[in-house]
Amino acid sequence: MKLSALIGERFKEWPSEAQLASHGLLIRGGYMRQVAGGIYTLLPPAKRVAAKIENIIRQEMDRIDGQEILMPVVLPRELWDESGRYESVGRELLRFRDRTGHDMLLAMTHEEAAVHLARTEAKSYLKYPFMIYQIQTKYRDEARSRGGLIRVREFTMKDAYSFHTSWEDLEKYYYRCHEAYERIYKRAGLGHVVSVKSDSGMMGGAIAHEFMFLCDDGEDTIAICPACGYRANMEVATGILDLVGDMGPEGLDVEEVATPGCKEIDSLCKFIGIPEKMLMKAVVFTKETTGTPVIVFVRGDLEVNEAKVRRLIGSDVSARVDEDGSDGICYGYIGPVGLDMDKFEVYFDESLRGMYNVVCGANKVDTHYKNVDLRQLPAEKFADVSKVTEQMVCPQCGKAHITLKNGIEVGNIFQLGDKYSKTMGMTYADKDGSLKTPIMGCYGIGVGRLLASVIEDSHDDYGPIWPISIAPWQVHINAIKRADDQVRQLADGLYEQLSDKGFEVLYDDRDLSAGVQFADADLLGTPIKVIVSPRNLKDGVVEIKTRDKSIAEKVPVENAASRVAEIAAALQKRIDDTL
Amino acid sequence: MKLSALIGERFKEWPSEAQLASHGLLIRGGYMRQVAGGIYTLLPPAKRVAAKIENIIRQEMDRIDGQEILMPVVLPRELWDESGRYESVGRELLRFRDRTGHDMLLAMTHEEAAVHLARTEAKSYLKYPFMIYQIQTKYRDEARSRGGLIRVREFTMKDAYSFHTSWEDLEKYYYRCHEAYERIYKRAGLGHVVSVKSDSGMMGGAIAHEFMFLCDDGEDTIAICPACGYRANMEVATGILDLVGDMGPEGLDVEEVATPGCKEIDSLCKFIGIPEKMLMKAVVFTKETTGTPVIVFVRGDLEVNEAKVRRLIGSDVSARVDEDGSDGICYGYIGPVGLDMDKFEVYFDESLRGMYNVVCGANKVDTHYKNVDLRQLPAEKFADVSKVTEQMVCPQCGKAHITLKNGIEVGNIFQLGDKYSKTMGMTYADKDGSLKTPIMGCYGIGVGRLLASVIEDSHDDYGPIWPISIAPWQVHINAIKRADDQVRQLADGLYEQLSDKGFEVLYDDRDLSAGVQFADADLLGTPIKVIVSPRNLKDGVVEIKTRDKSIAEKVPVENAASRVAEIAAALQKRIDDTL
């Protein structure tokens, strides 16, 4: 392809809306344009990368016996009523009516559609196990799309669904798929990916893993043990907390203290003269299923983990908003003494177990209690609802403190069990003729997010550094002063020669300065660059450089094409060697 | 792939809902399943065919310098407000609100999105001409989806948009694209495709063509001249009508006739004793833009063409429903005498020009006029609004009668002009620096409909006969009595050998009778079949047959693989030779 014809302007200015390197470079390099919040058009360079990523995914799915299908984007409500998710999933599920008044939705995931298909096609145990997958457009009505292709509303996703006759078989397949995912990231040239245990969330099911690309700008946080390799995302991570040491003398009476203006924790600690960890604070949620408040107490130096609360009470939760006290809660001064625990759903974090002489709210404005003894609370009121911090010790080996890292989720896999097959009445006839419910797994990976993550992983200030396996083009030819007959002839010849050899070549045929040409080449990030210029031609050479700067050499004109082929093979080998 | 693992049940029963061969065979063969009205899941065999069709389309689009991009399915209302189509397009455009209350839509075509992209990326004449295309999911809220994959709500479509600096340049490119389309159909093995002039409809613009696959079960009709090759779809086809011969004596007075019970044309003709063509009938439409009635008169033996009326009055129309006469129209007895032509929009078909002694309604129940002279009407009231019939003569050569054929539209191309670029304010700087509006073309082709059309074109009672270029698999191996060691070893070996040679092989490894295996093979329609059976092995041969029955031979075991390769090459050559 000739660069003069390529659609997609490139420019120097950093787009003001872009926080992430990938977001900014994708816009600057003419890879994508926003059409609406979180909705983008991909231009030719990005479409080419996406197609290559899709091919890698397809090959790896086929390798683990996946069968490609195509399910619809628009689904009828009835399917999601069967699973119960039409009601239970929030507003990120886009619902609408078609012209005949039927309730429809834009699918953001396809468990229901997969079961709808499989239940008529796999009625005998002989068909099992099997996996079906698709690479397809999804829509998720995000309230706050952000980060360019990292969190969008419309996206291309590979989603796969496997069906099994036993949990053991699911587990075996689940780890085959885990390995396929690792191969996908490696083949796409994405390093720094780790799998972590995760919450199955709206998917339901038991074991789930997220594949996290570790990067400072990632919006997810994961807990890692540097000693034993324990890894979990924040939603499920646990840690062993150092106990509060000296809590003072036993047997002190509860004492009411006037604390005017001490609604914040640090002002309260200063006022009373205690460390944060001797304080107990409350967070109030609204339980989505009932609308009622849930009060969660946690040690003053820790934070409440919403996902853990969600799992604990079996319902989605949201921050309580009507803090006018009409629900009988004295916001800002909540404490367990005198709180009606039959009226409210109340939990205490494990960090509070065994504590006494604690300071907490007195359910009265500007008032706290001192010396509260939590050892009197019933044991079943305690649960792990706090966020892991780096002061905690690994729950697996107990040998080192947890390290928190940021990351971007680039894939997830779930052991769903029978959640969907059971509610949707899917059965198969077993060997003995009895009807059984299949066990399912599901496996997702977003194409656009993976593309953006590769840029996060591999770029400099001037543009992406594409791994050769997914680069939009493998070779970039710069013809400097193409008006020069010799330059034009050689560059045109190389373009033809390399294209004939099967390389994807982007040929900068424009009558522009070397500076402008090179800036564009950097933004397009092609792995191998061939520079044809009058100065080099005088010496009978061309310059060959790699975008990653590992190679920069002058090569005799007649060897140029074969040297490019060598370098391309070496770059690909570097990727293959990681497998 | 082993057939025992393939997802998608096949069965004998014809599905009751299927009228078309393609619809029935796609269901019987395990190619697709309906999820909602006009919304299907494609199973592996159909997904494989679709992918091959997409690849052919992609190659042909790249061959005419197309650049592949990916635009969103979900678009914001604002874009369609700019073009005016948010208001003007009917309910087939699915509109909805996102969670933030923004008006959005599910795109059924992408002129607006293409201009939105191009207007920031092609600001200089140097970029022109260019063409961008995508292969992507579309949604069209059809009131009555039908015919399996022929008329669906959700579908995969290749849509392309070209941009030019002059009409001449557009026209040149338009015919390049026309040729690319012809190559696509040929490469997909679809015969009997002709291009016909068509109405540009909701697209706007001037010249447009539809590619029609001629087939008896097609729901579209096209007019063809067997003498000169004139072709047009019914919406734009014209014809030269034989004039009514003897209309009787001149100068007769208009005469009122009581015609009780003669609301239908044939009863009226019998009652008065005239042929249909001496009668004039009226059809009343509602003009969508204003809600007012439009009265169209046509000769009694002809029908009104709604598309022609639409173009004539510049608005969508629908059949008038409130026939209670409250609008001042005497339905069933409408005639021009005494009709207030200032109050109503009234047109007369060209077939009526020059007629006299005509019978028509008297705008009074059970009453008609005789001897009405239409020569008194102003010339501008006449227009071509009738449907072409086989009694008409070709308007191009005048040498033969029109033939009407049924067909399925498998593609369309439009010379849009500046309809979208102008309303959406797209400009480029010309050589002299002045701002100009680009001229556009657009080019669509539906993947699923093409797939179904190939089946319509190429099937027998037992299943599709896939052209080798798009067949889900090229080779089908039947192992008959695979329990036999020799059979198994040879079949397994051939499966491996042919797969290694790069063939896509479907291997029927099931312990089922030859009859069941062969029925499945027919439904899957693989071009080349290799049958390994104990009986054949005794003679040291396998049977090789083509699905199209052109070849059926016994081949020595050791030559089987090379013979398959030969046949595959010959089948492909047969397709290539049509190019």
Overall morphology of chain A:
globular
And the CATH topology of the largest domain in chain A?
A: BirA Bifunctional Protein, domain 2
**What oligomeric state best describes the polypeptide chains here?**
homodimer
State mean pLDDT of chain A (0 to 100 scale).
Answer: 94
User: How many alpha or pi helices of chain A?
Assistant: 14
Q: Estimate the strand proportion of chain A.
A: 25-35%
Supply the key terms.
homodimer; 579 residues; alpha+beta; BirA Bifunctional Protein, domain 2; YbaK protein; 3 domains; nine-stranded mixed β-sheet; five-stranded mixed β-sheet
Describe the protein.
Chains A, B: It comes from Neobittarella massiliensis. Chains A, B: Homodimer. Chains A, B: It is an enzyme of class 6 (ligase). Chain A has 579 residues and is α+β, with helices and mostly antiparallel strands. The first copy, chain A, has 3 domains: 277 residues, BirA Bifunctional Protein, domain 2 (2-Layer Sandwich), CATH 3.30.930; 129 residues, YbaK/aminoacyl-tRNA synthetase-associated domain (YbaK protein); 104 residues, Anticodon-binding domain (Rossmann fold). Helices cover 26% and strands 27% of the residues of chain A. Chain A has 14 helices and 31 strands. In chain A, strands 3, 7, 8, 9, 10, 11, 12, 21 and 24 form a 9-stranded mixed β-sheet that branches. A 5-stranded mixed β-sheet of chain A has the order 16-14-15-17-20. In chain A, a hairpin with a 5-residue loop joins strand 18 and strand 19. The longest helix of chain A has 21 residues. The two termini of chain A are 31 Å apart. The relative contact order of chain A is 0.14. Chains A and B meet through strand 1, strand 2, helix 2, strand 4 and helix 5 of A and strand 1, strand 2, helix 2, strand 4 and helix 5 of B.
